[in-house]
């Protein structure tokens, strides 16, 4: 289990392990993604961030502008869909913190370079105006919608053909989570829902979301995919589902849990 509540943030050292990222890709050797310092050559343009402890070992994420020779580049999304729970936690947190470090090199208030990090928490300190810059977290909703013995599944244009998932979207300013569920579903597939129920949450590193999962029930309307968002959408029987995300992801968890509920009711 990844422990993130450590009291101090150490500097890179020989006993630690490292996750390497270059150009938004995770670097691997023989499908392994945790390395010792001796496995690669740190460079002057490498950026590192402490992410926590895993099995008592300090874990850092290192970002390179260009991948070192010999490593294989892997898309984060594919790795997350194929990972177990422990690997998911490591990779997701590593990518979020590496993104924060890369995107917050200057103070957003006064423009001063951010070169000082807090010793006990993930924060960068502006030495000019004293503001602290923390990692950004963007709340999103993701929802599994039920209509009788069927579940609503959709495929966005960025997903491969044949793979389906739930409706998801960002929460807007001044909006609560349930309002975001209703709005996103109506905007993306043109239906209304009711009986919205919270199910769970999961960090999602594309690049800094917190996915908040819900169940909902169909109320009215006909499926009309948003032309700029949804490639296709439809209702699928709980016992005849298409290819869906790995249950390590909250999307897969919502779909399988909802299908099991329907199966138990039908037994």
UniProtKB/TrEMBL annotation:
Keywords: Hydrolase, Magnesium, Metal-binding, NAD. Its cofactor is Zn(2+); Mg(2+). SUPFAM superfamilies: Nudix. It comes from the Bacteria. GO terms for molecular function: metal ion binding; NADH pyrophosphatase activity. It holds the Pfam family Zn_ribbon_NUD. Its EC number is 3.6.1.22. Gene3D superfamilies: 3.90.79.20, Nucleoside Triphosphate Pyrophosphohydrolase. Residues 135-258 form the Nudix hydrolase domain. It catalyses: a 5'-end NAD(+)-phospho-ribonucleoside in mRNA + H2O = a 5'-end phospho-adenosine-phospho-ribonucleoside in mRNA + beta-nicotinamide D-ribonucleotide + 2 H(+). It is an enzyme of class 3 (hydrolase). The keyword DNA damage does not apply. GO terms for cellular component: cytosol. One of its GO terms (biological process) is NAD+ catabolic process. InterPro entries: NAD-cap_RNA_hydrolase_NudC, NudC-like_C, NUDIX_hydrolase-like_dom_sf, NUDIX_hydrolase_CS, NUDIX_hydrolase_dom, Znr_NADH_PPase. Belongs to the Nudix hydrolase family. NudC subfamily. This is NAD(+) diphosphatase. It comes from Marinomonas gallaica.
């Amino acid at each position: 289990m990844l422990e993130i509540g450590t009291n101090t943030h150490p500097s890179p050292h020989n006993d630690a392990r490292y996750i390497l990222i270059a150009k938004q890709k995770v670097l691997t050797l023989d499908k392994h993604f945790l390395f010792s310092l001796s496995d690669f050559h740190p460079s002057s343009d490498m950026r590192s961030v402490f992410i926590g402890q895993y099995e008592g070992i300090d874990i850092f994420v290192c970002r390179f502008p260009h991948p070192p020779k010999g490593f294989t580049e892997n898309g984060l999304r594919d790795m997350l869909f194929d990972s177990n729970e422990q690997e998911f936690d490591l990779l997701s947190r590593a990518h979020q913190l590496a993104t924060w470090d890369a995107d917050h090199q200057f103070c957003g208030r006064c423009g001063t370079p951010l070169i000082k990090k807090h010793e006990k928490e993930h924060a960068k300190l502006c030495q000019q105006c004293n503001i602290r810059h923390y990692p950004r977290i963007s709340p999103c909703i993701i929802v599994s919608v039920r209509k009788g013995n069927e579940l609503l599944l959709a495929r966005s244009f960025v997903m491969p053909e044949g793979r389906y998932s739930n409706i998801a979207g960002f929460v807007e300013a001044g909006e609560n989570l349930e309002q975001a569920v209703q709005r996103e579903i109506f905007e993306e597939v043109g239906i209304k829902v009711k009986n919205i129920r919270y199910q769970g949450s999961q960090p999602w590193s594309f690049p800094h979301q917190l996915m908040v999962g819900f169940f909902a029930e169909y109320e009215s309307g006909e499926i009309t995919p948003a032309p700029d968002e949804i490639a296709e959408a439809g209702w699928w029987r709980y016992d005849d589902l298409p290819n869906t995300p790995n249950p390590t992801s909250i999307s897969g968890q919502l779909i399988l849990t909802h299908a099991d509920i329907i199966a138990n009711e039908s037994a």
